[in-house]
Design brief:
Strand order of the largest sheet: 1-2
Shape: globular
CATH superfamily: Tetratricopeptide repeat domain
CATH class: Mainly Alpha
Length: 198
């Protein structure tokens, strides 16, 4: 059985050029010699328990020092880009289980919940992301989109305003997504607002 090593290169800056149309971080995958998803490596690797590295420009998962949380996160992005939302959510769950304070995993899992229309669950993830980092503009923008789909325009506008104040560069990414959400909303029946959401 061939073994593969996944190498992910990613720039986590908040400029829109580093995000795909769906709002997920851009991801480049390369295949090498060893399978990092091999479950038997979980017991063998001390890296599985090591602290998570910072995610910087050009970060690579080609060395054992990187944690499995990072690998699950990146595979979740790949699944989400393929619109395999349930698989993406499962991988984000693992990434969050391994590092509960992972802002990007919470935010990206929220985006994956939006795919199949689970807006309330998405909002909960965005709230978690914002509890971890209250200045993470993408979580405000993504939560604004979920509010739009739930026809909660006041909350949506508030979140968009906050996102654009924190990081003006996200505006050019969110404007077309906002227009798309408003168009889709006009074509579908009204949804019941979620309970206990602010």
């Amino acid at each position: 059985m061939p073994r593969y090593k996944v190498k992910c290169e990613h720039d986590y800056s908040s400029t829109p050029t580093h995000r795909s149309e769906s709002g997920f971080p851009q991801l480049k995958l390369r295949v090498g010699a060893q399978n990092l998803f091999d479950p038997s490596r979980h017991q063998q690797s001390a890296a599985f328990q090591s602290p998570e590295p910072s995610r910087g420009a050009g970060s690579s998962l080609s060395t054992p020092e990187h944690t499995y949380g990072e690998v699950y996160f990146h595979r979740g992005i790949a699944y989400a880009e393929l619109r395999q939302y349930q698989r993406a959510i499962q991988d984000y769950n693992e990434a969050i289980r391994l590092k509960a304070s992972d802002v990007l995993a919470h935010d990206s899992r929220g985006v994956a919940y939006v795919g199949p229309g689970q807006y309330e669950r998405a909002i909960e993830d965005y709230k978690e992301a914002l509890l971890i980092d209250s200045r993470y503009a993408w979580a405000y923008g993504h939560r604004g989109l979920a509010w739009l789909y739930l026809q909660r325009d006041v909350q949506a506008e508030s979140d968009f305003k906050k996102a654009f104040e924190i990081d003006p560069f996200v505006k050019s990414t969110f404007e077309p997504l906002i227009n798309e959400a408003k168009t889709k909303r006009q074509l579908s029946p009204p949804r019941k607002p979620c309970k206990n959401s602010h």
